[in-house]
Sequence to fold (326 residues):
Amino acid sequence: MYFLQSKPQCGRKPLQLKHAQQGVAIIMAMAVVTLAALAATAIVVTQSTWARRVQLANDHTQAQLLIQTGLDWGRAVLSDDLRVSTADHAGEPWAMVLPAVSVDNGNLLGHIEDQQGRFNLNNLLQDGNINASQLEAYQRLLVLLNLPPVLALTLADWLDTDQQVQPGGGAEDVYYLALPLPYLAANRAMQDVAELADVAGYDAMVRARLMPFVTALPGFAALNVNMATAEVLAAVIPDLGLDGARTLVVRRHQAWFRNYADFISQLPQQLLNTSGVSLSENNLSVSSHFFIATAQVSFGGAQARGSALLARSSAGWPRVVWRKYQ
Fold:
């Protein structure tokens, strides 16, 4: 009997190896495709991010240019006003809020605020020393605002050039050097009311209460009685009182004070006999030289805000004392 003996299947292993190699090749190919897709995606995202950053940078640059345009608008308006009016009051074009002006891909808002209707804190300083009558006026303002009058003394020490603490309270270098983060008193006029944050006693609540009524202007500035609040009028004019000041504000809304003599004629006679130097033309005026122009811009994906303190004179456009951008 013969038995058929099968031949050994010597080709099976090479076939399996071939299939395995093909599987590895497919996996490698898929991996390469995946990596290529990921790389392409990363490049697209990077380019998109870069393009977005470039666009935002361009938008921000354009917004800054529009801010400057808005501030120049304020200078032009104030310059034109000086040619047609000798008194400054809230009924004039410069005092109106600029409606939103549409620009390509954005809008511009702006307004101008008189600064001489506020109490100028730098009026306290005269030739490096404290002006006693202005210090008393500032103390009256603090009392009217329900704030401690000692704050006038700490501000006086901050401004004056000596190291003698004001009688009744105050703070000189000794106080500031004892703070956890020590520094020295300024011993000079303020550039901006924001500096009040460094003065003893002027915490955030105090500053918020004060801000609508005070300013910091270069040198001495007369009070514009056409723009001053009742509180500031009552502080600057002794014995006028808050009720008397409110009466003047009501009359002012009916007819603006045309000149200094017009304003004085509205005061009670007994007040004219007692107020003395406080009623001088050096202290009171019906016009202003200092204003803050503010512009706010939205352009594309960028927003910007800027303000400038403008000093107006009889010659040319108002001078920029300082400018801020946010």
User: Anything to note?
Assistant: Confidence is low (pLDDT under 50) at residues 1-8. The longest helix spans residues 12-84. The longest strand covers residues 290-299.
